[in-house]
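Q&A FORM
Asked by: J.P.
Topic: structure of TVP38/TMEM64 family membrane protein

PROVIDED:
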Amino acid sequence: MKQRLSHRALIVIATLIVIAMLGLVIHDFLPEINLLLHSNDANRQELVDLIQQHGIRDMIFLYIMIAVMNAIPGMSNSIVCIFAGLCYGPLWGLTINWFGNMTGNWLVAALIGHIDFSEKFMHNRWLERLQSSDHPWITLTVAYMIPVIPSVLVNYSCVNMQIPRRNFLVMVSLGVLPVSLIYAFGGDAIFNGEFKRLIIYAIIIIVLIMLSRLIGKNVKKRHAQ
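REPLIED BY: S.T.
REPLY: Here is the structure written out as tokens.
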């Protein structure tokens, strides 16, 4: 008999991992956090010098946090993704965010066949809409781009619809790239005080949210017909 895992138990374990990683990150970045909270032109170079002293260890901590938080329904990793961009700049921040978000989705997809989901989850309105699309590859790829759609629902849809593994990897990679990029460059914009860039990124996020509503309305309209 195939052993099943408790959905809630996995969430508890994942949350404990996030708390542990958060404690390590705060410990390692406490001087930088203090400087960020009291940021000015005088201490900017000191902040840059402190950040540059961090090596692969702290990148791995952020990567793990992003991956695990991505896998927890209802938990947003946006603050950590922005922090990665703020501390490591847009390119390294994008790398950490992108691989963290991809890993989180891959892990969830790998575990879905072993998890017992609640009836509430199985009848989620987004789950029904995602699995009712005439163009699932496009719909699911776009769904990964939209922060308000829980990624576990998208991953479940991919597994349930038996999307080929190669296609699934491509869909996840493309789907999480825009938001990973926006958060990384947004963090860098915060560090440099470039508020015009922040406004542009905020507009993009709003457009993605509006796109999610449009997808839902189109599927609902098609069902009504």
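FOLLOW-UP: DSSP finds ten helices and two strands in the chain.
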